[in-house]
Write a structure and sequence with these properties.
Keywords: Hydrolase, Membrane, Protease, Transmembrane, Transmembrane helix. 20% of the residues lie in helices and 27% in strands. The chain is α+β, with helices and mostly antiparallel strands. A hairpin with a 2-residue loop joins strand 5 and strand 6.
Length: 197
């Protein structure tokens, strides 16, 4: 008498499929954890989170906004016209950090005439915030930006303390902490800080 033929068995194949799905899931979870860890390290070493104080940078950055500052950015390059930089005025360690937009770079000639800023004789407008100024301050007469200095203004120029003021003046590169990079909070202002040319 012949033995009964065994039917096809899918048990072994099903186990292999389940095992490979679990391995793929674990691999994906590991990649997510690794990406998160790398992100945390990058933020810790190259970014800082600061809170904007005052209305000088409205509407780009509002008072109380939490901003990520790229501390590494200017180690490789120099600030460009239109960047929003973070600095302590005159290197004063007791002052809070200021966030202002770069208008003049080394070698530029800056003047405020009839409420508007001119860079090297040309009208300079960012198209952001309040362009016209009631106060010319130090820039009433044409001034030249030094070799390691930057002339900065707030986007909300009539409430901004900036390079027009003798208390701040031109910002030295050594006093720059980093580049305002990303508004992390609140959600209605969430996103990259706009640079202009």
């Amino acid at each position: 008498m012949l033995g009964r033929r065994k039917g096809l068995s899918f048990t072994r194949r099903r186990k292999r499929i389940e095992t490979s799905a679990i391995q793929a899931g674990l691999f994906w979870a590991g990649e997510c954890i690794l990406a998160f860890a790398i992100g945390c390290v990058l933020v810790f070493y190259f970014m800082s989170r600061l809170t904007c104080v005052g209305q000088a940078m409205e509407p780009s950055i509002n008072s109380g906004n939490s901003v990520l500052v790229n501390r590494f950015s200017y180690a490789m390059t120099t600030p460009k016209r239109g960047d929003v930089i973070v600095f302590k005025p005159n290197g004063n360690k007791n002052a809070h950090y200021y966030m202002r937009r770069v208008i003049g770079v080394p070698g530029d000639k800056i003047q405020v005439k009839d409420g508007f800023v001119y860079v090297n004789g040309d009208l300079y407008e960012t198209g952001i915030g309040n362009e016209q100024m009631d106060y010319a301050g130090l820039a009433e007469e044409e001034l030249k930006v030094g070799s390691d200095e930057y002339f900065v203004l707030g986007d909300n120029r009539n409430v901004s303390e900036d390079s027009r003021s003798a208390d701040i003046g031109n910002v030295k590169k050594s006093d720059i902490y980093g580049k305002a990079w990303f508004v992390a909070y609140p959600w209605d202002n969430f996103g990259f800080v706009t640079s202009v040319k």
